[in-house]
UniProtKB/TrEMBL annotation:
Keywords: Cell membrane, Ion transport, Membrane, Transmembrane, Transmembrane helix, Transport
Protein name listed in UniProt: Potassium transporter TrkG
Topology of this chain in the membrane: Multi-pass membrane protein
Pfam families documented for this protein: TrkH
PANTHER family: KTR SYSTEM POTASSIUM UPTAKE PROTEIN B, TRK SYSTEM POTASSIUM UPTAKE PROTEIN TRKG-RELATED
Record's keyword annotation contains Glycoprotein: no
Listed InterPro entries: Cat_transpt
Subcellular location: Cell membrane
Chain ranges passing through the membrane: 35-56, 68-90, 96-120, 159-180, 224-248, 260-282, 332-360, 380-400, 437-462
Amino acid sequence: MATDPKGSFVTRMRASLRLAWDRLQDLTTASPARFAVLVFAALILLFTGFLSLPAATATGTRAPFADALFTAVSTICVTGLTTVNMGTYWSPFGQVIIFIGVNVGAMGVLTLASILGLVISKRLGLRAKLIAAGDTNPMRAHGGVVNEGQTVRLGEVGVLLRTVALSTLVIEAVIAVLLYPSLLVGGVDPLTALWEAPYYAAMAFTNTGFSPNPDGILPFQYDYFFLTVMMAGVFLGSIGFPVIYTLWRHQWHVRHWTLHAKLTLITTVLLFFLGAAAFLALEFDNPETFGSRDAWDTVFQSFFLSAMTRSGGFSVVDIGELNGSSLLVGSMLMFVGGGSASTAGGIKVTTLAVLALAVWSEAKGRPSVQAFGRRIPSDVQRVALSVVAWGATIVALSTITIAHITKSPVEMVLFDVISGFATVGLSTGLTESLPDAGVYVMALTMFMGRIGTVTLAAAVAASSRSQLFALPVERPIVG
């Protein structure tokens, strides 16, 4: 009896594709952290391919692989660092690719993974909801039941995903409408302004910091309305989607705000004012930055710089001309970053708030860490400490490596490395002059900073193992 080789081959192919599809479905629910890392890595490779096309550059020649890869990482990780001039190097096609990339990357690792998982599985079951809630869950690095510390309840996950999409569209649209008149006043022709307004809006809300102009936002340095709108966009992007969801749902009923929302807003505003005060005190007499400006402009630009070091990435002064003390302050602000599940990077303001509350409780001799009538579990404190330790380790290794490669001053290297890790985008000028080896190290730093230290740790960990016994207690000497 004759067989059909072609039919047999088609059958095997269908079986192989079905097996691969089933494994992908299992991955979306069994290991959300690893799936999230895989999604971002795949997006980076895809956009590297797009930016490697000759049509993506203004000259029509193929971009070097290092520049295409670095720009793709900076785009998907919404960082804003670049090895080329964004306003002149990329063609309109390349700029559109970058615009799409920052909006895709801004949704966040686990949020994006949950949406793709929903597309694959065709439904939002319990495990898919756990993935979606993962970016707002302090226990996302651990197995087991999600506890009371979770910011968004599982029943609200669908609403959260809609909030992510709608808030991105609405906020960017409003910012673009507000920026359009300023662009016209600044001399941009009406047709070009129709493109640059949404571009700047996206770069502000996503906390990326790219600019379509060769001089960045320097032409608008005295347009305080333009700069204020940009700061507002950066602020809304940096507080995080769970906080936006809480504000939209409860508005000014502060009693109904979650503890996460309260800690995020209070810490963000506090660091905003403290950073502005520090820059004002350290730079008011620096003729290369604020020293040549009048009193009002100096105060305003201090606040603007403070806002941008939280993850915005825009600047109207030459960062390389800042005093060393200011670079250190900027590095500290960038390392903290913005809110959890936001477009900002860093270790997150809630991580700093939890550790500060733990130190305060220890100083006061309290048995537990408390805030606003709520107790913060010890496992959340351990996660916060782990985030800081992981972040500091990544920054230290990257700084040492790049400093060795470039032989540049350590303070400049540290600033750019933290800017990359915290996905800020400010630079002393070092990044544009990096050799290819340094470019790859910085790209890896940006990737690890964006996917999150907790997500990275969870993805690397093989599995969560339960221990059915307790070891004897012994207290080492600490301090």
